[in-house]
Write a structure and sequence with these properties.
With 372 residues, this protein is an alpha/beta fold. The chain is built from 12 helices and 10 strands. The chain folds into 2 domains: 202 residues, Rossmann fold (3-Layer(aba) Sandwich); 159 residues, Alpha-Beta Complex (DNA Methylase, Chain A, domain 2). It is 30% helix and 12% strand. The strands form 2 sheets. Strands 1, 2, 3, 4, 5, 6, 7 and 8 form an 8-stranded mixed β-sheet that branches. A two-stranded antiparallel sheet has the order 9-10. The protein is globular and about 60 Å long.
Length: 372
């Protein structure tokens, strides 16, 4: 199988898309303890490298991944984007911005056949022109690069408007023909998936007392699922060597999913939430009530402990006066029901909010796979 390494892997949205596109995930590099734990559950046969990317040489990375020079087909990853985000402080000297350059340094040092780097659209702002140019300059002699590709997840079958930019480059000597933007146009078979349809089958009534990981395992109604591409990806399409066999069996045999933990709201909050119309924002919590006939807004990740441990604002369910569960968030991001996240709501939401939609990742990497 063609081999990739996923840098800044998080929970594994890019990894899952790559596996479904036909690639083998040789290794995942991630510094966050909780993300490594989650990635290991879902990709038990991959090597997991818990190191700072800026301190890894290309040679060391290949060795840790169990690869020899010339064996790496693709290097993919989503370098930290908070410094570029339009909702952040957008400081040019934010230390996290340097990770974008570190990605391209490792492209140069590992010489994959192609690379894919994902980030927020804010990275294209003029103030970051020099950062982008300096990062890309180190690989321009060997690789052809497409102009940055903006992708809105809802156009690729995910029920969210989340929009990201992809930097795609390839070694022409290792491809059958040139890659072009036309290769990444969404398939005509993809139909829009709205919030109401995306959440079919998941329990609508969530007990606020369901707080533990085990309490979050709940029955789903498989009769509500539709025969669509979205639900094929939500229920099936388990790539070889991916997933926790024990938890997949629990899902497939007992129709149970994880992550249905509840959130305790006061009576006053529930009254406020119930009074909101679709798409309206609560004045205090800033949560938006989902529109069942529209797409989910971009899910946020909140911050890690080094940045204050702030929880992300979570959308309100379109029917119940409560914020959504981690499993509902996962569906809205395009993750399958058998994919598991951290045992806590906070880290689950962080992992989902930080992730690339697997539906988008699969579309991008499948287009590349065809031409390798």
């Amino acid at each position: 199988m063609l081999k990739i390494i996923d840098l800044f892997a998080g929970a594994g949205g890019l990894s899952l898309g790559a596996a479904r596109a036909g690639f083998s995930i040789s290794a995942a590099v991630e510094l966050d303890n909780f993300a490594v734990e989650t990635h290991r559950k879902n990709f038990p046969h991959s090597k997991h490298i818990q190191k700072d990317v800026s301190k890894l040489s290309g040679k060391e990375l290949l060795t840790l991944a169990g690869l020899k020079a010339g064996e790496l087909d693709g290097l993919v990853g989503g370098p930290p984007c908070q410094g570029f985000s339009t909702i952040g402080k957008r400081q040019v000297d934010d230390g996290r911005n340097d990770m974008f350059a570190q990605f391209f340094r490792l492209v140069r040092e590992t010489s994959p056949a192609f690379f894919v780097a994902e980030n927020v659209t804010g990275i294209l702002n003029e103030q970051y022109d020099e950062i982008r140019a300096n990062a890309i300059a180190v690989i321009q002699k060997k690789y052809k690069m497409l102009a940055p590709l903006k992708i809105k997840a809802c156009e690729y079958g995910a029920p969210t408007i989340r929009t990201r930019v992809f930097f795609i480059g390839y070694d022409p000597k290792k491809f059958k023909s040139h890659l072009t933007h036309a290769d990444f146009v969404p398939s005509s078979l993809i139909k829009p998936v709205y919030v109401k349809d995306a959440l079919l089958g998941l329990p609508k009534k969530i007990d606020a007392g369901w707080q533990s990981e085990e309490q979050g395992w709940r029955k789903i109604n498989i009769s509500e699922h539709q025969k669509t591409i979205f639900f094929d990806r939500a229920m099936n399409s388990v790539p070889e060597f991916v997933g926790d066999p024990r938890l997949i069996d629990r899902y497939m045999e007992k129709n149970e999913v994880s992550g249905c933990m509840g959130t305790r709201h006061s009576e006053g909050v529930e009254i406020r939430y119930a009074s909101l119309g679709y798409g309206e924002q609560d004045a205090i919590s800033k949560s938006v009530r989902l529109n069942p006939f529209g797409f989910c807004p971009t899910l946020r990740a909140g911050t890690a402990s080094d940045k204050g441990s702030f929880q992300a604002v979570r959308p309100i369910h379109y029917k119940s006066p409560r914020v959504i569960t981690p499993r509902e968030a996962a569906r809205l991001q395009g993750f399958p029901d058998w994919f598991v996240f951290h045992s806590t709501k906070w880290h689950s939401f962080r992992q989902i909010g930080n992730s690339v939609s697997p539906l988008v990742a699969e579309a991008v990497l499948a287009a590349i796979y065809k031409k390798l």
